[in-house]
Write a sequence for this structure.
């Protein structure tokens, strides 16, 4: 079966590798254009593009699936298109190009967390179980019938990066199995059932920690936005980046945002109990341990995160 693979970030690479390993004829890869990275803003291929070039697969770079991109896809005559975090909408004209349509690997248990940031929103919401599905892509936002499902427990210390890394591996197997079933004429997608929730893309402001909230909510927010867009707070108007926090439920005498240093531990109050800072990156400086940062404060007991 001739497969067009659409994807952009590193989380999509295991799926591309799995399809190649399974023996599918991956005729081309659709990915986002090269992007400027680093301080020197060097144009860099997406992780999927880089892997496709290593595998000797033709690459279509496109910021959106317009008429020109659709025509290029048609030239490869795919039987099916597999899509994993491409980063753009596939319009109706392109959906009809492969005879088996487009199969999307999505990192949630649809219809929960439809949208661009399902894993991040799941952690922030405190879900204990999440997973991944393969479904038939439609014009609606992640609304198509489901081919297959897998589940994954959300661990207490999971960041979105940790969880996505696991789901990328298991999801790649699910995607390969789904395409095999389609090729064999044995696929039977089922309509989505259950409560719908949305997972819009995270913006920088989503990473701001609200110290008035209970500690568990603060911790979930920090883990959900790690590594992107990152957790942060402000001190005297300056933005400070934070890594995920540890819960300290035995300490309940700190006001929200107030800091206390105990040995090598830097504690911050929340709306319920304290949390312990991990590493911290003050404005204009490199990431450092919170203990090193606190040593540079003249009066740490007077410091209050905003």
């Amino acid at each position: 079966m001739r497969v067009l693979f659409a994807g952009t970030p590193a989380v999509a690479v295991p799926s591309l590798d799995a399809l190649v390993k399974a023996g599918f004829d991956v005729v081309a890869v659709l990915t986002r254009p090269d992007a400027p990275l680093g301080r020197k803003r060097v144009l860099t291929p997406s992780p999927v593009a880089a892997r496709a070039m290593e595998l000797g697969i033709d690459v279509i770079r496109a910021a959106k699936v317009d008429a020109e991109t659709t025509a290029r896809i048609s030239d490869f005559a795919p039987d099916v298109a597999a899509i994993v975090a491409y980063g753009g909408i596939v319009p109706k004209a392109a959906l009809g190009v492969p005879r088996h349509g487009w199969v999307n690997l999505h990192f949630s248990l649809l219809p929960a967390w439809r949208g661009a940031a399902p894993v991040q929103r799941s952690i922030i919401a405190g879900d204990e179980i999440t997973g991944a599905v393969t479904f038939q892509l439609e014009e609606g936002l992640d609304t198509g019938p489901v081919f297959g499902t897998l589940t994954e427990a959300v661990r207490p210390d999971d960041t979105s990066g940790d969880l996505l890394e696991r789901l990328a591996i298991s999801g790649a197997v699910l995607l390969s199995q789904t395409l095999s079933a389609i090729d064999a004429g044995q696929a039977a997608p089922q309509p989505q059932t259950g409560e719908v929730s949305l997972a819009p893309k995270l913006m920088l402001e989503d990473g701001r920690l609200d110290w008035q909230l209970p500690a568990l909510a603060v911790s979930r927010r920090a883990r959900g936005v790690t590594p992107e867009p990152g957790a942060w707070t402000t001190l005297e108007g300056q933005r400070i980046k934070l890594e995920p926090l540890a819960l300290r439920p035995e300490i309940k005498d700190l006001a929200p945002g107030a800091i206390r240093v105990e040995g090598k531990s830097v504690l911050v109050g929340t709306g319920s109990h304290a949390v312990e800072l991990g590493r911290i990156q003050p404005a204009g400086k490199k990431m450092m341990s919170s203990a090193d940062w606190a040593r540079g404060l003249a009066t740490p007991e007077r410091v209050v995160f905003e």
Summary: The chain has a mean pLDDT of 95. The CA atoms of residues 255 and 269 lie 5 Å apart. The longest strand covers residues 129-136. Helices lie at 13-21, 47-55, 67-75, 92-95, 118-125, 160-183, 215-224, 290-295.
